[in-house]
Design goal:
about 180 residues; single chain; mainly alpha; about 0% strand
């Protein structure tokens, strides 16, 4: 009778131990899955950091290009202002010459009309040149605005990825604590 009860007691212990073995096996599988997930997360973080580092290296080039474009724009504006001033001077000169030519007669009038034609052609050339420079200036402005927008998008993406990275690190820390807690048990 005592042997029978001892046998039953051992069988219950064996059954409990078997249950524990199954439970621990499931726990190990779960931890292995968590570990694989953690490795995947670490790899994606590493790739993201590599990509961000690569993009960060391009920022000085963008800054340099923007600086050069700004300088070109300033140079064009200076040249445009100079040409405009020259044109104003020439237009005033033309106006004075036309007024004088009206007062003169004969061959002088004909000579002035010929000169007026020359000045009109020069004026047209200047206007064409100013228009070309204005178009070049507008093109540079558009290019600068596009690059500013690209730069802004880049910074927004970098900020978003930094936040995402922080979230992933917190999640990783939490998983590390869970794993440590499970290991300590």
């Amino acid at each position: 009778s005592q042997f029978q009860s001892q046998k039953e007691c051992y069988e219950k212990e064996i059954e409990a131990l078997n249950f524990k073995v199954v439970h621990l096996s499931q726990e190990i599988n779960h931890l292995q899955k968590l570990f694989r997930e953690e490795n995947d997360i670490n790899e994606s973080i590493r790739l993201e950091v590599t990509r961000l580092t690569s993009e960060n290296m391009m920022i000085p080039d963008f800054k340099q290009q923007i600086s050069e474009l700004e300088k070109q724009k300033q140079d064009l504006e200076i040249r445009l202002n100079e040409q405009t001033e020259k044109m104003k001077g020439k237009l005033e000169e033309l106006s004075n010459q036309l007024n004088r030519s009206q007062e003169e007669e004969g061959t002088q009038r004909k000579a002035m009309e010929a000169q007026n034609e020359i000045h009109t052609k020069e004026k047209e050339k200047l206007i064409d040149k100013i228009q070309e420079m204005q178009e070049a200036s507008d093109h540079l402005k558009k290019q600068f605005e596009t690059e500013s927008e690209v730069k802004s998008n880049f910074w927004q993406e970098a900020s978003r990825l930094t936040l995402e990275n922080r979230d992933l690190e917190e999640e990783l820390d939490m998983k590390d604590r869970v794993i440590k807690k499970l290991q300590d048990q």
